[in-house]
Amino acid sequence: MKSVYDIIRKPIITEKSAQLAExxxxxxxxxxxxxxxxxxxxxxxxxxxKVVAVRTINVHRKAKRMQRYEGYKAGYKxxxxxxxxxxxxxxxxx
Length: 94
Known about the structure:
Layout: H1 4-7, E1 8-11, H2 15-21, E2 25-30, H3 36-47, E3 51-59, E4 62-66, E5 69-73, E6 76-83
Antiparallel strand pairs: 1-2, 2-6, 3-6, 4-5
């Protein structure tokens, strides 16, 4: 069985995710084999909040070039988690 800390890898903090945080939606990078039920339980356990909905997105790898070297930026799975009214996660507060 996977640990909740293996499922939720890190929060994604960008301008767009900061705007979503105002509407009680928080963005996380998650394990690529995690499903919505596992993500919901992990967020509820780690942050002690009530999750209403989970949306997932597979971000595909992108080709990158550094001078004469070519390679790829790794792909990952992203989850957008919506919380119940009145709940918040302090990690996103700036």
